[in-house]
Structures are given as structure tokens and as C-alpha cells.
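Aggregate trends can hide what the representation actually does to any particular protein. The sequence in question and its C-alpha cells are set out directly beneath this paragraph.
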Amino acid sequence: MIIKGKKRELENKAASSIVDLLIKTIRKKGIATLEIPGGGSVGGILRLLAEKQIPWKKLHIFMVDERLVYLNDKDSNYKLVYNTLLKKIIRRKNKLPKENFHPFVLTEKINKDIENYMRGLKEVSDYFDIVLLSADEDRHVASLFPNHETIKSKKKFFTYKNKSTKLPKGRMSASINFYQNLMFPFCFSLASQKGKHLRILKIQKCQLMSVLLKLLSKFGGIIFS
């Protein structure tokens, strides 16, 4: 389903829908997992989520992708998420415990870093309940870029150096193969475009793969045209 509207209106709809799904999942499972990207496209949604009444202690947050920089680097996705979401939550009594947020921590041993990140996920859940994705003007999703060799990766999470079409060139990302095996019910994808209007996709899990592949193909633009 594609919903059209002004940016603020769509951000509110996305945030409200995510909260509803989180609360339903927590009531059913006792916990919920949310996977989020960095980048400015979802900043508005993250700021709105920070103001919502969510049982934060029962929520685990993971990153869908990260730049290969340290957490305090100005280009780090974690830093954006911290400034727009985490910092506000930490001030509350019913705050998100530190151990419930799972950033990708870069060291000198990248393969070990990936193993640690995957281990953190497995300790919490076998799958993500909700994933928030954004599609930028160039149609890249997470750190998967259109017609790029990285979309062929068979790994669940992978890293690469000097291959991104945007700076910084080193990235960590969940792969298309990873999304194919997930069990989450919905994905929200914002296409950020110049001007005041955006479109939001509310995608059933069975449709996610085809939408991602179209976004990452030569003709992906038709999704948001």
C-alpha cells in the first residue's frame, strides 16, 4: 500500500503505526525488536517516537546499517540515532536500558565485530519484529546501493570498504538475503524527495523482497514515481 502526503503527516502516520505494532508485539511476546537505519530521511520519525509512550524497557533496538567509523564519529549512524531518539529517552524514568540498544561497534577486527553483532541479535530474538527502512533519492536502502555488487551478498550481515557510492565508503549492512529470512510483519519505507511531499510504503512481509529488488534495480524509481 502506498500512502501519499506531506512529510510531517507521513512521519506521524509512520510513528503511530510503529508504536501500535510495538505495543501489540510486547503484549504478545513480552518484548519487541525494532531495526532502524541512520541518515536524515528517518530523523523526523525517530524524533516522534522519542515522544511516544512506549514500554522502552521491553524494547530492543538494532541498526540496519552503519558507516565503518567509531560511535562518536560525526558520520556515525549511531550518533544521529542517539541525538534524535536515545538522548530523549534516557532522560525519562521508564527509559531504555543501555543493554537494550545494540549499536554496531567497530574495532580493528571487522569480522569479529560482525560476529558480535549477530550474537547480540540471537540472544534477544530469532527475528526482527519491525524494520524501518528509508529509500533516498538515489534509491539506496540501508547500505545497499542500486546495481551494486553488494546486493549479491549471501551473508546475513556484511561489511565492505571503498565500495559505497557515498562517503564514507566503508559500510556495514544487513543484506537482501537477511531480509528474505525475517518474520517481521511490516516494513515502513520513506522515499525522501526534494520538496514538501513524500510517499510512504506500508509493505506486507511477502512483498518486501520484490520492493527492495525494484528499488535496487535500474527501474526502481517507478516505485515512487
Q: What stands out?
A: The chain has one domain: 2-224.
